[in-house]
Structures are given as structure tokens and as C-alpha cells.
Amino acid sequence: MEIIIVGGGKIVYFLAKNFLAKGYQVSVINKDQEYCINLAKKLNAVIIHGDGSKLDYLEQAGASRADAILALTDNDPDNLYICQLAQREFEIPKTFSVINNPDNEEIFKSLGVDTIFNTTKLISLLIEQRVETTDVNNLLSIEEGRLNLSQVILKEDSPVLGKRLKELHLPDEIVFGCVIRGEEVVIPKGSTKLLKNDKVLIITLPERQAEAFDVLTGGE
Amino acid sequence: MYILIIGCGKTGSYLANLLSKEEENVVVIDKDATSFEELSAEFTGFTVEGDATEIEVLKDAKLAKADSVVVTTDDDNVNAMIAQIASELYQVPKVLVRVLDPQKEVIYKELDVITMTPTSLLVDKFKDKIVRSV
Looking at the domain that runs over B2-133, which CATH code has it been given? Predict the structure, then answer.
């Protein structure tokens, strides 16, 4: 496996180190000479000082035989250009790009980048999940947000405590995935009773989500 | 005609002034508002301050309604991204882009985008004059 990484910082260093440990061949392209000199001292990889969005430097990095390219700069237009050049001029089969502006996910996808790391979105999602300011969390958006998987923690003021699922008045577009009770996972049936501190996972259409939350938390 | 010009440097502003004088409907986007000082008193179009690689800025400037988009920022990679958004994603009928580094033309090979590379044009002319005058 031959991988080209364009970008800098600690991430690129550790990624390259990781890939090398797996026996991959790694080339790194970076515009900063000092960074390149440092990296060359530490890694047994091809380090190229130059602009990764230019043909010459990609060529030097072995683009014509690379299996994958990772565009990890902090500049989205640069990342897009790098991936497209790699694809169109060198036919590198797999392109990966970080995007800094979360709105660019769709654009990059439409313009042919294979795999996109939407770091801003990932971090904000993780924070939303970890910082429990609320008893309602969106865990996952499926099919570009046409379907949501969310988690609701039933607090003591929830109106559904002690009720069976079949007694709840929920819209049809809401599916109970499972109930997490302590360490136990309960696959819900109509007869399942809801208890305090249950984590309820529900699958909903986004437009009905608020309604489901209201039923489960008693909120308006 | 509705013409969107992205990048209000010498080329962008000069073109905006000319088109506006000919009574075309012109909107200019630049991330630096001071660049709009290059626009003449005769310029009657609108200006949008913002980074045109942000899709919201392009939407604000009504990209979807544009008959022509001219991309003339001083960054080739930025130009490539904006030109493709306009041409591939928004199907703008005519997309023109200025390419600074002749190496960067390759990305447009398969695209319905008109490229202008001043360096190549100039070099060709110079070469012509030199060779002919010898």
C-alpha cells in the first residue's frame, strides 16, 4: 500500500508513523521547509517540500503508483484541488479529504472526493453527546438527515415512567430501537415498561422528532 | 443578463465597471470590502463582502440565477472550487475563470468552463514578437 499525505501538524506525523508501522509506503508533502526537515529526521518516509496541489510535487511523491491520497490541510479549496488532481491526472483510486467548513461536505461529495472527514461536525456532535446538558441527544443522522437516531434519557419528571410502550401516544413515524437499562439492553415490545434512567433509543423522521421528545420527556 | 464576478481585484473590478456601464446586471463578491473602492462611480451593481468558497455567500449573491460567473480571485485552488460549484453544481450557463499558474489549467480539461491564463497569453505574444523581430 502506498499513501500520499498532504498537510502538516502532529496529525500528519502520527498518521504517517502509524501507516509506516503497518508496512505501508508513505510520502508526505508540505509547504513548510522546516516542518519537512523535522519530519524527515523522524520518519522513514519520502518527505517533499512543496505545494501538494501541483503536478510536479505529486509526481515526486509517487502519485502515479499511489493507492490513496489524504488531503489534510486547513484550506478546503486546496484539499479539493489536491484530491481532484490526484484522481484526474494520476488516477489514484482512493481520495480522502478533511473539510474545515462543514457546509463543504456535500460539495466535495458531488465533485468526486471519495471519503470526507467533516471534523467540525464530528467534534460538535461528540460534544453534544458527551456534554449532557440535555436529556435528549441526536446520535446519528442517516441518509443525509432524512432519518435520525436519537437517545432520550428518562428523568424522574418524565410522564411515561411506569407506562408500557403500547400505552404511549406516539406518532407512527417513530420506532423504538431499544432501551438501555443500566448495563442491560432491552429490546422493546408493547409490554415493556419504561423506568427512570432508562436510555431510550428512537428512530424518527426529523420532522416528527420534537413530538417524540415531548411525549417522552413531558416537555413542550 | 445577470453576471456574478468573484474577486474584485484589477481584473474583476475593471470588468465589473465595463459591464455595468453597458447596463448589465452585475454583482461583485470579494472577501475584502476595501477592494470595492476599485469600482467606478458608474458602477451601478451590488457588492457582497464575503468568502465565496462559503456556499452561503454564493447563495446570497444568487448564484443559481446567474447567466455568467467570472472567477478572478488570486488563488487558483479557490478559483477551481468556485468555478466547479458554479458550473457542475449550479449549472450556470457560462463560467469563466482566470488561471494564474498555467499548471493549474489541467483541472478544467473535462469541464464546461472557459479558462483564461494571462501568463500563457503574454508569454506567447512575447515569444512571437521576439522570434519575428530577430
Answer: 3.40.50.720
